[in-house]
Amino acid sequence: MNESADANPREPLVELRLWRQFLTLSDELHFGRAAQRLHMTQPPLTQAIAHLEAVLGLRLFDRTKRSVRLTAAGLALVPEVRDLLARAQALPAHARAAAGGELGHLRLGFVSTVGFALLPQWVRAFRQRYPKLALELTEATGDVQLQLLDRGEMDAGFMLHAASFVPPGLERVVIATEPLVLALPEHHPLASAARLTLARVLAEPLVIFPRRIVPSLHDAIFAMYHAAGRSPTVAQEAIQMQTIVNLVSAGLGVAWVPESVRQFQRTGVVYRTVPVTRSGSRVPACETSMVWVSGNANPVLARFVAFVAEVPPAPADIDRHELRAK
Per-residue pLDDT for 1 more than 50? Predict the structure, then answer.
């Protein structure tokens, strides 16, 4: 089997200087004029072209006393060499752009609730402002994102957690703070109740995510039950918020979900807000944070963090959410 030139480690390397001399001569087809353009004398140019042909093992020019013409091989090389030299000339600017976070890519993880409105808006606006930057998006639960961050396989992630919870060992920007609302089956008696009370709601079977997915929020929800002297009756666990809402629609129980999940319009589900009780007990709030490992050297990350802090979501998209840095 014949190896391609790209795959052959024995293929001779040719200096850019020789390619520039080749291209200049191909433009002029005259050694004297080409040498003058290259600010050199004719004999060294003649030697350089002869050396290039010897390295390649073929003739690039047919020479007579009166003319210089490109061979078929030389003619085929001209556009390739022109492109090579143009790309080589662009390398310094390319490197500076990459170092400044104007070129490169960012690997982002996100939970499904961010994908309803916040993330699409930011991705669209970020790409419009920085078209040379690529965003690689991966939907993943918080526990999976932590693993990817720890292994260096992700630059940053959008995670859901209990309000005021600080993910250990990570830097963060709080993206949104929102209350939890109750998702009920459409025909459940509480769905049409004039006023919900926490005591009535806590007696219902619960559909909830596993604790390993969002430990802080899971614990906050359970603490609300325990503070009222109850233990939640978990009817079913599910990982994704969409799945949880679908299970509610099927009548398996009720669920506490971030208010932004209201945008997931599922037939057969009603969302209700549960007010603070007379004793002051309230449904916990949740936060969404953008988190990353301290010391991440990807300059695109710093640019994206600054962009998110500078361009909060439109009020129409986030309702009562707030953006703040911590």
Answer: no
